[in-house]
Each structure stands twice: as C-alpha cells, then as structure tokens.
Design brief:
The protein has 192 residues and is mainly beta. Helix content is 9%, strand content 60%.
C-alpha cells in the first residue's frame, strides 16, 4: 500500500505543477474488475476484484488526449459451483500495479473511446484450493504487458463512468501452461 500512496502523491504533485495551463487533468478512479485467465481451463469472468488509482490526462487537441494512469488491479480466475462441478477448487489471485498509456478520442460531446497499452507490475500471485492458499510468485511472471480498449461516458461535469477490456499479449506463466489475463473493468472517474 506504500507504493500506491507514493504513486498517488506523485500524480497530485504533477497535477499541481501542470494545472495552470488547463491542458493537464488529474483523474481519480475507483471500480471493479471481472477477470479470467485464458489457459487455466476455467471459463467465465468469475473472479471479481478492486480497480482503483489515479492518472493524468493531457489534451492534445479539442477531441483527443493522452492519459497515463497508475491503477491497483486485482485479477485472476475462480472456479464456480455448477451441477457438473459441485465443489469449487480453484482460485487464482494476481494483484498488479497497472500502468496504462491510453489515447482517447471524443466521438460525441460526452462519449470518449480509448485505445492503449499497459505494463503491469505484479504485487501478489497465489493459488487457493479453498482449503489452503499457495504462493505462486515464483511461477507467475513479475510483469504483464497488454492492450486495452474502452469507452468513457461523462455523466456530470467532472464525473464519468468507464468500461474497459484489457488482454495480456505475452504469457504470464513461467511454467508449462500458457496463461493470459483477460479483464473487464468498470469504474467511476472524477476529473479535475
């Protein structure tokens, strides 16, 4: 949590330095992830987790902008109860600090589309069989790299809702099986 505090402090300082020309905007974000791990033989966005952080947006034209964000993001996958699987026995939990760089474009006055890339630093990797929890930090790579796309809809002057999908482009698993994070994120964003 110290790292997150330092990142948020850094963003506040950057925003105060650059806010005089009104081209830079601080973005605070809080929301949730629904994720899965492609390759783990579980299907569905059944692992829910937090997604929160901050970023800086720089307008490059009337309709376009670039954002740099720092987000704490809980990812992974989860086995769910079904008639064919009455006992759930798998929970992967991968926590990251995501650092996306996003290009945004105003399609309509209140609607932006966004495309970008992200780099992530893993802070936790564990596997649980719902009886015991096992550390997987030696198996899950310490970084994740991927692409993302999404939409942002402004509901009030400084408040918007965001929906985003991100996908790993490189294998995150250092063992034989190939794993790729696939995450849908929903958040509320406040822009200054």
């Amino acid at each position: 949590m110290k790292k997150i505090g330092l990142i948020i402090t850094f963003i506040f300082i950057c925003n105060s330095i650059f806010s005089q020309d009104h081209k830079f905007h601080l973005i605070l974000s809080a929301g949730a992830n629904a994720s899965q791990v492609n390759g783990d033989k579980l299907a569905g966005f059944d692992k829910f987790g937090l997604n929160l952080g901050a970023g800086i947006r720089r307008n490059i034209s009337q309709k376009a902008g670039i954002q740099l964000e720092f987000l704490y993001s809980e990812k992974g996958s989860r086995d769910v109860v079904s008639p064919s699987n009455p006992i759930p026995d798998t929970l992967f939990q991968f926590n990251y600090i995501d650092i996306p760089i996003v290009y945004t474009y105003n399609v309509y006055p209140k609607l932006n589309v966004e495309l970008g890339i992200y780099n992530s630093i893993r802070t936790k990797a564990s596997y649980s069989d719902f009886v015991n929890t096992y550390d997987r930090e030696s198996i899950i790579r310490s970084t994740d790299h991927g692409v993302l796309g999404g939409v942002n809809y402004q509901i009030l002057e400084h408040l918007s809702i965001n929906a985003r999908v991100s996908q790993s482009i490189f294998d995150i698993n250092a063992s034989i099986d190939r794993y790729f994070n696939l995450v849908t994120s929903f958040s509320i964003r406040y822009s200054l």
